[in-house]
Amino acid sequence: CAAGTGNPLLLGLLFQQIASLHYFQRRGDDALQASQEAEKIYTALGEIQHLACSRITRSFVDTRFGESERAAILLEGTIPLIDGKEDPYLLLAARHNLVRCYVDLGQPDKALDRYLSAKPLNSLFHEPLITSRIAWQEGELFHQLGSLEFAEAAFLRAREGFVELGLTYEVALVANQLATVYLEMGADEKLEHSVSQTLSYCRTRTVCREAKSSLDHLERMALR
User: Fold this and answer.
1) What is the DSSP string of 49-98?
2) Has this prediction a pTM greater than 0.85?
3) Cα(165)–Cα(159) distance, rounded to whole angstroms?
4) Could you tell me which residues come within 8 angstroms of residue 86 by beta carbon, excluding any fewer than 6 positions away?
5) Which terminus in the chain has less CB density within 10 A, N or C?
6) Is residue 4 helix, strand or coil?
7) DSSP letters along 40-61, please?
8) How far apart are CA 115 and CA 156, in angstroms?
């Protein structure tokens, strides 16, 4: 970048990509710093859509590292800036992360309201990863609302979607949440079957440390 044109918009985009990279590397402070650098540039340039995109990235960082309340405030102020016709995916990501925030904060009524606002966008996207993540979020929301059968159905859809995509870590996380639902339902046979299915699938694949921890927890839940 230093050897290039010095184009400030390009520099902003570079910072935004670096922020995303650090997010996936679990380097929260570095991701936050890079995102804020991008926001400064976009603000100075008056690039509202790019600014909104960078703020969405920052909200993901905040949510992942336990700052859901800060992320919710940021998203509530950012969503009105997004041109949904220009970038419907960005709007979808923002709305669903806002739902995620209110689920994490234990505010299911607000989460449901924001979920219903986002629902018309869902029909625009048919990519397996997006539909699986939407199902996962539905499961979490229904669980908080106490609708265990709806939560079960949503988690099953999400788990199946992640299995087809080969995303072992996500499979393990969803399976843990599904197991919690089965425990609350008193559905011991479903719990045992679900755990057996998940462990059989995951043991044939290389898993990261976090996934292994999640699978160990799943086994302990089945032995309760």
Assistant:
1) HHHHHHHHHHHHHHHHTT-HHHHHHHHHHHGGG--TTT-HHHHHHHHHHH
2) no
3) 10
4) 49
5) C
6) coil
7) HHHHHHT-HHHHHHHHHHHHHH
8) 19
Phi and psi at residue 69, to the nearest 5°: -65, -45
d(CA 183, CA 175): 12
Only one residue has tokens 């400064």, namely 40
Q: What does the buried/exposed string (b/e) look like for 59-72 if buried means 16 or more CB atoms within 10 Å of the residue's CB? A: bbbbbbbebbeebb
Q: Vertex 157, ends 25 and 208: CA angle to 5°?
A: 30
The span from the first CA to the last CA of the chain, in angstroms, equals 56
Q: How many CA atoms lie within 13 A of 18 on its CB side?
A: 17
pLDDT digit of tens for each residue in the chain (224 aa)?
A: 677 788 999 999 999 999 999 988 888 899 999 999 999 999 999 999 999 999 999 999 999 888 999 999 999 999 999 988 888 999 999 999 999 999 999 999 999 999 998 888 888 888 999 999 999 999 999 999 999 999 999 999 999 999 999 998 899 999 999 999 999 999 989 988 998 888 888 888 777 677 777 777 777 776 66
- 3-state SS class at 179: helix
